[in-house]
Amino acid sequence: MLANILRIASGQFIAQLMLLVSLPFITRYYNPEEFGVFAVFSAITWILVVFSTGKAESLIITMKSKDKAVSLTIGILTIVLIVSFIFILVVEFFLSNFLNSFFLKELHYLPILIGATVLSVGATQTLRYYATYLGNFSGHGIAATVNAISMISVSLGYAIFIGGDSLPIGLILGQMIGQFLSFLVFLFYTDIMQMITLKKLKVSFVTVFNQVQKIPILLTTSLASSLSSRIPTLIMSAVGGMSAAGIFAMAERVVGVPTGAFGQAVGQVARHQYREVHEIDNGNLSLPRKIIKSTFLFVIFVYGLLIVLADWFVPLVLGEQWRVAIVFVQIIATMELFNFMFYSVEDIAIIRDNFSYRMWAQITQLIFLLALYAVVNITNILSNVELALGLICLVRILFVVYDLNRTWRNV
Fold first, then answer.
1. CA nearest 99: which of 17, 147, 40?
2. pLDDT digits (tens, 9 = 90+) for 269-306
3. Is 161 exposed, middle or buried (0-12, 13-18, 19+ CB in 10 A)?
4. φ, ψ dihedrals at 55, nearest 5°
5. How far apart are CA 353 and CA 37, in angstroms?
6. Residues 218, 220, 225, CA angle at the centre, nearest 5°?
7. Alpha-helical runs (H) found in 190-325
8. Which pTM value belongs to this model?
């Protein structure tokens, strides 16, 4: 298990190190307001990604045979392609003005940017799960490295050679192209291209349909989770404007992105190994508990160190103009400490086929955040961005602790 984690984590480490090293350069070209526009765009598109896949890619790992796993993968990829094209048409003819109102400025080629981003992210996520099913972990690290190189080069290249008043598009293109190149890496490291036949295409929709009874819970849970993770960006923009949203986005990039990458690296291996254990002993508790205990010791040290050194670390990496992000980094690091443990064992509940509780927990969390967004958007009761961020993180921590408790006890 450790060897597989290292295969993924080594690539993730290189990718995150590259992103960290690039931040002092990126933050010299992009200010907090431009990061705010990029953050709002990402919030919208990642929510749409959930609609495009129905989160059915999480079910690939549960397939009893490779033939069914291939059929489900092909079916999801086809659906993502169709839905992404539909999004382009809907945004172009019905939602362009509404969505641009969130950015407080017009983004050129918005429908194409949204559709292409949804397609690249949704397709990459689907192949990542299929690669995990195959136990092929080498591609994960390479895909992460390729993604990082693309994001950095495209974002900086756009700012240096094009620039102008459309700088956020550089960040958007960096994200989109990075995801697309990651998709190509997973194509190379899996056999999905060789497995696609006309017969498989016909069977794929039947396979997706056979899983449809599980999709509503997964979709509702994932949509609530995505909204819960994206609405804070909108709350920050409502409380402190696009600059606050940009500072929040940068703090999340510094702390949250590595957390998701490394936490899910552990989770990729954990779900693969637990699936094999679960087939023999579906009541097994030792592996999930071992993962939770190991990650707890790791996060206490790493995130504690980051919180203590944030006063020195943030200005050094991001520059003096980003010193206001120190408190944001410290608050988010406290939350991500718990998130790392959650990501490590997130899919164990899905393999157990015992995850409906997560839907209600996410819905409850979402209702609270929507209420908070309504309050800050309509009134001036909560005008302190640090306090608003603290409330958001506290809610997230409480629900993560609840979920970890369920996983630990196999309730």
1. 40
2. 777 777 777 777 776 677 888 888 888 888 999 999 99
3. exposed
4. 60, 20
5. 38
6. 90
7. 192-195, 198-210, 215-251, 257-280, 286-318
8. 0.74
